[in-house]
Amino acid sequence: MSVIYVLLAISITVAVAFFAAFVLSVKSGQYDDTYTPSVRMLFEDEVVKDKKESTLNNQKSNKNTTTNQ
Amino acid sequence: MTDTTCYHCGDACGKNGVHFDDKNFCCNGCKTVYEIFTSNGLATYYEIEAKAGTTPNEVRKKYDFLDNQEIVGQLVEFNEDGVQVVSLSIPSIHCSSCIWVLENLNKLHSAITVSQVDFPKKTIRVTYRTQDFSLKALVLLLGSIGYEPYISLEEFNKKDKKVDRSLIYKLGVAGFAFGNVMLLSFPEYFEVQEYWLDQYKVVFRWLMFAFSLPVVFYAGQDYFISAYKGLRSKLLNIDVPIALGILTLFLRSTADIIFDLGSGFFDSLTGLVFFLLLGKFFQQKTYAYLSFERDYKSYFPIAVTRLTKSGEEENVQVYHIDKGDRILIRSHEIIPVDCILIKGNAEIDYSFVTGESEAVFRESGEKLFAGGKQIGDVLEVEVLKSVSQSYLTQLWGNAVFAKDKSSHFQNITDSIGKRFTIAVLSIATLATVYWLAVDPTLALNVFTSVLIIACPCAIALAAPFTLGNMLRIFGKYKFYLKNTNVIERLAKIDTAIFDKTGTLTTNQKDTICYEGLELTEAETALLKTTLRASNHPLSRSLYDILKSNAIMTLDEFQEHTGKGIEGKANAHTIKVGSAAYVGEEQSTSMTNTAVYVSSDENVKGRFVFKNTYREGIDDVFEALGTEYGLGILSGDNDGERNRLEELVPKTTSMLFNQKPEDKLEYIKKLQEEHKVLMVGDGLNDAGALAQSDVGLAVSENINVFSPACDGILDASNMNLLPRFLRLSKNAMQVIKMSFILSLCYNIVGLYFAVTGQLQPVIAAILMPLSSISIVVFTTIATNFLEKKLKN
User: Fold this and answer.
1) Residue B483 sits in which domain range?
2) CB contact under 8 A, A4 and B176
3) Which of B22, B184, B226, B314 has the fewest CB atoms within 10 Å, i.e. is most exposed?
4) Is the ipTM of this complex over 0.85?
């Protein structure tokens, strides 16, 4: 049954590793702004589109305009 | 064209609409932004959220002070090797399109490398190369696309504020230890005298001890500090029994495992601290983009243009202006000091100071006060007093602004803390005395068990969860409070005092009525045509109410800035403007803004602009009148007294001609017998707001500024104020009910403790169970209360 020492050591190491990851993520400011990243990840690289295409899209979006804030 | 809306900002296009690229725009500004976006491949802006834009304001020379490197050096966060990093606050950020376009700033200028938006705080952090770019260029670029940053004196003095993340760390530590200790204590819950369990339980126990160390000495340290502070000032706050509980839990458990008496209560200990911190975390809801601490500094510009003796212009920091300096005030700049007008036509909007939105006209030689905003052209003024000595800024020297209201207020949890602590200690002593007589070996066990089980975890959680939830509910209804403490104070209010202008009245629209000789149809038509040519806000609103469709061609039109306008057609002249301009002697009884009209040099009459009271104000007063003492404090003269008396209950006291200090003193006097709620809006109310028990600022646009206060109420929900007050009282009832509920758990626990049967597993079940049921109860109760806000 002395394998329990090994198991305990492993489980605590894993737990401490996760805890360290948590502390680091707080330190780097990941929890300071919890809203903007959720919006940011939905953006794609729309910017590279050439002008013609984007005007087309404009008209499309113009037709089904919804007034959201 | 009138029913179309702007492709960029969604406003009605009206008569000045611009048609461009098959799309309609309300003004040239919006059209320019559209051009900038489309020509730089940023047209997606309009796809993410339709009509998301904001109309750009003209900025031009306003930011010339950013040429001054000393000032720039103070504003930027990082400045080395030709790279600068700056954080700017942009109040107009409001949707995902904003985030998108602001994070793609590098497409608009190659010198910008990174830009990142913090949406809740409404700030943007930009990194750029200074080689062919500058902070000024960045600010102008943002201004040109409708995201004018807001740079004020406050920013300038701001020291690097460290973000306080210690609560998150503590919560992390407690949660981590709680989880691990729970797992490690599990085997002994089902103790069945197994061989291997006996063998290894020492390891398990000492591991739990190790995990509980950081919980007691790091995560729980606030409770010890707070209890110590409370005891030193002879106050038994709720943290005293909590600290006592934590300490007893830790010492008893340690003793238990040392002497092999049992597994200890480490699971309850870590769980207790974790739940307590969770409550603290929940309570900590803040509105990052709203500031409740504003003083004059957030209104004032950082720098102004000073004229040197030789007549050159230079940008100097506001604090460096001395008496006797000549400074320039440009259009839409705020006057930072008391001064005398030397050159130019002053048209000053004192709405920041008084809440009154109608501009006043001043002529050269007259005194201008700090805090006014010039609307007309450039002014040259001579400084009378430095910034800190100006009339408005002196108000902040008053001691009330240094006072922290919440520290002088004993909250509901602390107020029962005293009785609770005494009760627990006496029960523990009685039980110990009894067991000393019956079975002395059990005495210490019982004593510590009572302290452990009576630890008021659930009581300490009731207020944070109830009030934290209420704070969110209020926020949904555009009533933003500084912290949960304000709700408790709000529930104790018995007198409500209101400011008049800007609080009870709205700045958005005026009632205009005509007094004097009736105008003929031809005169009305001429008047309307003349007004049409003017861009002055008063002309605009007058134009909108005049009923005449005959539009004629003017032979001559003249606008005299700061005086009035003149139009000629078919040999008739019409003059509109100030009393002096049309040749009328200013009547002394005039209390409201008025525009005079003369036809062919004969004065015909005047249009009087009256304040409009917000809709439902009479209902608010009626609803409040039954429970609260009411009062109105106004900085204006008593011209509105009669109208007010019709609106409000007869018991309402009314005081007029109140200076900011008078308002403060009045509130102070009332506080001798009452708990006072002050509702105001302008900087002139700032003293009264700070002095009152709860100061609420009413704001038509919460992104623009309101003075230092405890809460900001969106003007559109002003009519809900009586319900907000009632709800605060209801919230306190919910807390009291939770107290009773958690006391029931305590009584059950005490039974086990007093009889000496408290097993760790019982504590480990009771503690989380009581905490969770309190959280569930308060959540359901507050959500039920929310229904009262809906109609």
Assistant:
1) 471-506+614-725
2) no
3) B22
4) no
